Amino acid sequence: MQFQTPSNPFPTSSYYGSDYFCDREDESTHIIKLLENGQSCLLMCNRRLGKTALIQHIKYLLPPEYGFIYLDILATENEQQFLDALGSALLQSFPEKSSVGKSVWEFIKGLRPIISFDQLSGIPQVSFQVQHSEKPVQDILLFLSKLDHPVIVAIDEFQQIQFYPEKNTDAWLRSTIQQLQNVRFLFSGSRQTLLSDLFSNPKKPFYKSANPLKLEKISQEIYREFIIRTFAKKGKTLTEVLAEEILDWTKCHTYYVQHLCNRLFQMDKKKYERADWQDCAQNILKEQEVFFFNYRSLLSKQQWKLLVAIAKTGVVYAPTSKDFIGKNKLGSSATVFKSIDSLLEKEMIFKEINQEGAPYYQSYDVFFERWIQGKDF
Ligand SMILES: Nc1ncnc2c1ncn2[C@@H]1O[C@H](COP(=O)(O)OP(=O)(O)O)[C@@H](O)[C@H]1O
Ligand SMILES: [Mg+2]
């Protein structure tokens, strides 16, 4: 597979091959093994930790005879849009001129959709004008099942099907999937409570139908070496101490690490000092300030106060405790409970369980947290 060279060795979107991809070796090996053994997999973690990039990495590592279809359904709102996304993904995965591609394109055309091409990129899009999407989705999946090589269907942000107005999407999708041979699924998503409910609730059709894998942060030690090496490849020196400071400041959260390193790499320097990364970090926060003030306008006063308190504290185990409420002047615990729910819903904070089983809360956006910590709200 050929990849373009990114304009900066710390890309903040997309996947550019293993040279620009840090670690995830155990996770890739594990997932590939499952897929090769006919199992489906459920990949979960907070946004911006690297699910989508890992899916692309797995595609790259899989044996070449595997077909690979990727669709992100975050923007879909109903079954019809799911069908369109699936159809488009199929055409995008199999070039019309390839030998399998010919039969794929013929098959899709046989379902009589409108096929259009993006004017700039030439990427095909399909739109089906049907009343019921269930049958064409089933037809597509059964078609894939008949190809003479295994196919992986990766569905990103899969929790979205929970929001469709049609109430039984999971039921018919699951029963179709059960009939397939040679097609395996790689489900992925960031709303862990929704996904857990979908896959671990015995009353739901997808119960135990995929092997769950919770993606953690990249090990700080491995990331540090990767950062130093990536700078060194371009003749730039970053010391271990500075790399460690960068990782601490970004809390080793992939997207934020990449963003800061990308900025630092842009500096016309051969040898970096502490003030360099600190300047870059300050500039990023300054630029993002408009978004942060916008958060404030999206929230009620109580919600904003709680968000600020959580971001200031960093990790909060007992947001409804007397101590925390008193210190941050948050009113009653009932108000805090309500605010927690809406902040979780808006993905401004996330809830995680530590190794001992204790739940805690943190601000979702690392830059926001750092910004708040430097302010006097
Ligand atoms: N292992 C990795 N090494 C380097 N960069 C990565 C890695 N994983 C993800 N990224 C980068 O981090 C950003 C966020 O990753 P992404 O896959 O979009 O997260 P998610 O899908 O979990 O929201 C992307 O820009 C991607 O380029
Ligand atoms: Mg993603």
Protein traits:
377 residues; alpha/beta; Rossmann fold; Helicase, Ruva Protein, domain 3; Arc Repressor Mutant, subunit A; 3 domains; five-stranded parallel β-sheet; two-stranded antiparallel ribbon; 15 helices; 9 strands; 49% helix; 12% strand; globular; binds adenosine-5'-diphosphate; binds magnesium ion
Describe the protein in words.
This protein has 377 residues and is α/β, with parallel strands linked by helices. It has three domains: 24-214, P-loop containing nucleotide triphosphate hydrolases (Rossmann fold, 3-Layer(aba) Sandwich); 218-295, Helicase, Ruva Protein, domain 3 (Orthogonal Bundle), CATH 1.10.8; 299-377, Arc Repressor Mutant, subunit A (Orthogonal Bundle), CATH 1.10.10.10. Strands 2-5-6-1-7 form a five-stranded parallel β-sheet. A two-stranded antiparallel ribbon has the order 3-4. The chain has helices spanning 25-36, 51-61, 79-93, 99-110, 134-145, 169-178, 192-200, 220-233, 240-249, 254-266, 274-298, 301-313, 322-328, 333-345, 366-373, and strands at 41-44, 67-72, 114-117, 124-127, 151-156, 183-189, 211-214, 349-353, 359-363. Helix 8 (220-233) crosses helix 9. The termini are far apart. 49% of the residues lie in helices and 12% in strands. It is globular. The structure holds adenosine-5'-diphosphate (ADP) and magnesium ion. Adenosine-5'-diphosphate (ADP) is lined by residues 11-13, 21-24, 47-53, 218, 254-255, 258.
